[in-house]
Design brief:
Blueprint (H helix, E strand, L loop, with lengths): L7 E5 L3 H9 L4 E4 L3 H4 L11 H14 L4 E5 L8 H14 L3 E5 L5 H9 L4 E6 L5 H4 L9 H16 L4 E5 L3 H10 L4 E4 L7 E4 L1 H4 L20 H14 L12
Parallel strand pairs: 1-2, 1-8, 2-3, 3-4, 4-5, 5-6, 6-7, 7-8
This protein binds 3-methyl-2-oxobutanoic acid.
3-methyl-2-oxobutanoic acid binds next to strand 6.
């Protein structure tokens, strides 16, 4: 799809029921994200999410899924050492993930290579990485500083060279997201990264307007739907593909 210049869509799901609705709406990729720690469990960060939580939700989504590609998040500190990374990634793949997602830049290059060599596709999550919230100090846009932007671009290339099959950019300026998407051959999924990435992802609860906080890059697709939740999901797919979402008001410059 990237080679054809066709946008694809990704949404988070955590259970069988929504996994089915999402796939039936035409969403190509379902992410079982550790955002479940915040939207389902009510924590103020993703740090408390465990491997057991991820296995439970990935296997639930797998049962409801109707053909979407499934990416599962490796939770906080589950990829701190090589042995842990391999064992935990294998556990998530056995639960039903078809790709696993790690947060980080250059420091995850080695894990990415180890996993890719062993047949586990990796999505590298860069920019705002919520598992590092205590180092970052808040949910801020990343890569506004030219030096930080340059190192993010170099890290994206390094991760592709290390075997990453996908990148996810969260909360980065639109121009940087475009530069990175053009500089790598693997697909780049964006959230709060503007309209020029190869795909978009949203947290399901944000799309439905039921999250307690509404970041700038979020749109409530349920408002205005003439067919409830299925209609909202189809509107998201249509708007991403037609490049109507994200609109300028959802982007960081
Ligand atoms: O955990 C998650 O849902 C995510 C998205 C915000 C991209 O990583």
């Amino acid at each position: 799809m990237k080679q054809r210049g066709e946008k694809f869509t990704c949404l988070t799901a955590y259970d069988a029921c929504f996994a089915q609705l999402i796939a039936e709406a035409g969403v190509e990729v379902t992410l079982i994200g550790d955002s479940l720690g915040m939207v389902l469990q009510g924590h103020d960060s993703t740090l408390p999410v465990t491997m057991d939580d991820m296995v439970y939700h990935i296997s639930s989504v797998k049962r409801g899924n109707r053909g979407a590609f499934l990416i599962g998040d490796m939770p906080f500190m589950s990829y701190a050492s090589e042995t842990q990374t391999l064992e935990n990634a294998a556990t998530l793949m056995r639960a039903g993930a078809q790709m696993i997602k790690l947060e980080g830049g250059a420091w995850i290059a080695n894990s990415t290579r180890l996993l890719a060599e062993r047949g586990i596709p990796v999505c590298a999550h860069m920019g705002l990485t919520p598992q590092s919230i205590n180092r970052i100090g808040g949910y801020h846009v990343q890569g506004r500083d030219p030096r930080q932007a340059e190192s993010m671009l170099a890290e994206a290339k390094l991760l592709e060279e290390s075997g990453a099959s996908m990148l996810l950019l969260e909360c980065v300026p639109q121009t940087l997201a475009r530069t990175i998407s053009e500089a790598v051959t693997i697909p780049v999924i964006g959230i709060g990264a503007g309209p020029d990435t190869d795909a978009q992802v949203m947290v399901l609860h944000d799309l439905l307007g039921i999250s307690p906080i509404t970041p700038k890059f979020v749109k409530n697709f349920l408002k205005g739907s003439d067919d409830g939740i299925p209609g909202a999901l189809r509107a998201y797919v249509a708007d991403v593909k037609a490049k109507r979402f994200p609109a300028p008001e959802h982007c960081f410059n």
